[in-house]
Amino acid sequence: MSVAKIIELNAASKTSMEDAVRAGLKKCAESVKNIKGAWVNEIKVVTDDNGTVVEWRVNLRVTFVVE
């Protein structure tokens, strides 16, 4: 029988939402092993005064199997 755990984290990118997800998972994988998947809970953008997107932010729920 395996046991899975879910942790929540936030990540950001100036490029895209996908890049923010990749960056968050890459950083998470430095200390968390057996990552099996992730949900994107929330997406937020930071804009300048003209409404141009300057940063993408995501809230992730990462699932991993506990050894």
UniProtKB/TrEMBL annotation:
Cross-referenced Pfam families: Dodecin (PF07311)
Name of this chain's protein: Dodecin family protein
InterPro entries given in the database record: Dodecin, Dodecin-like, Dodecin-like_sf
First and last residue of the signal peptide: none
